[in-house]
Amino acid sequence: MNKIKNTLLLALILLAGSASAQELPMPSPTSTLTQRIGLTDISITYSRPSMKGRMIWGDLVPMDKIWRTGANKATKISFSNDVKILEKPVAAGEYSVFTIPADGIWTLILNSDLELWGTGDYDSLKDVLRVELPVDVNPMQAETMTFYFDNLSSDGGVLYLTWAELRIPIVISTNDHEIAMKNIEKAIAENEKNDYGPYINAANYLNGKGMSKQAIEYAEKGVNLSDYWYAHWSLAKIYGDAQKWDDAVASANMAKSKGMETYKEKGRDFSPYEKDIDKKIAQWKADKKAKK
User: Fold this and answer.
1) Most buried in the list 170, 220, 267, 279, measured by CB within 10 Å?
2) Model's pTM, two decimal places?
3) How far is CA 113 from CA 32, 33, 94, in A?
């Protein structure tokens, strides 16, 4: 009799263990969104509820009350470097995400507690950020709650939260220029083979930041290290952006000559690049004429 009881008990234990290990579809599946802005990696992990015919704002999601901003475990966001959200600083790290929905304006909250499930144990003393966000009201935005990035640049972007008819923009800016400058210095200091690449890469970056004088200096060093056509072409475009049109045209012609020669030796077609170069040369000549 005891043997039968023990067998039944073991069977129940195994059944319970098997049930707890089951992997089944979730009504609000988990999603992770990752985006690099500048040199900063941003990742957000959240569970995505769907409308399923339900009224969302003021019903499924109460207004003027703290919301976990998703389903299941609290949403998390991480930053690999320091950032600003609506110009308020946020240190590199990982945070839970909460919001307080309201008519016309929402409150975004980042909290240091990463183990929250819902809002039951939420502690405002662990908040690291509170900012107010505008709300865009449009026709149907998304059946399923969605985060996505848009309006990206090298130093910022917008993380949008959208569900039903609402879209909430979260403006994020990075300050990676100091890191980039250190990376430039390091790459050049370690450039034992005197490769032109670190100088041209630095020049293109600095030119994009409007630092044309420094960009020209680095690009000219790159050309002095290599007669490769791309080095001349990079210098030409930087000259052009600095409105040094005669220098731009001269460097572009040199790039075209070197490129045609190199590609001919390798049996490759340089004509697509040649067309781009000729187009730029014509533009610079027109810009110079218009400036007079």
Assistant:
1) 170
2) 0.77
3) 19, 20, 9
